[in-house]
């Protein structure tokens, strides 16, 4: 009987913990208006950060060809592949 009471209490505590994790916390706003109250300095910093990110992305060269580390080891002659299949 005591074991069932302890298990029931544990189940209740765990479910209460899961429910409280889904409730909004005080001081934490997940709505869209929370991001609109930024100062002028913050928006300028965001723009400068975005520009630096875009400039860094432009400096990365495009991949010219896909690398194949086993390309030198693999044989490309069709005669060898035909013999292995038989």
Note the beta-strand portion.
under 5%
State the order of secondary-structure elements, H for helix, E for strand.
HHH
End-to-end CA span: 71 Å
Tally of DSSP helical segments: 3
Write a concise keyword list for the protein shown above.
single chain; 86 residues; mainly alpha; 3 helices
Question: How do the strands and helices of this protein lay out in sequence?
Answer:
Elements: H1 2-22, H2 40-59, H3 78-85
Task: Please tell me about this protein's structure.
This protein is mainly alpha-helical. It is 57% helix and 0% strand. It starts with a helix and ends with a helix.
Task: Summarize the entry for a quick read.
The protein has helices at residues 2-22, 40-59, 78-85. The chain has 86 residues and is mostly helical.
């Amino acid at each position: 009987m005591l074991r069932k009471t302890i298990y029931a209490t544990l189940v209740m505590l765990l479910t209460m913990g899961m429910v409280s994790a889904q409730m909004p916390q005080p001081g934490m706003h997940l709505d869209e208006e929370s991001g609109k109250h930024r100062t002028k300095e913050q928006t300028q910093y965001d723009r400068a950060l975005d520009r630096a990110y875009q400039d860094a992305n432009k400096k990365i060269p495009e991949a010219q060809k896909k690398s194949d580390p086993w390309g030198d080891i693999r044989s490309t002659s069709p005669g060898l592949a035909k013999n292995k299949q038989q």
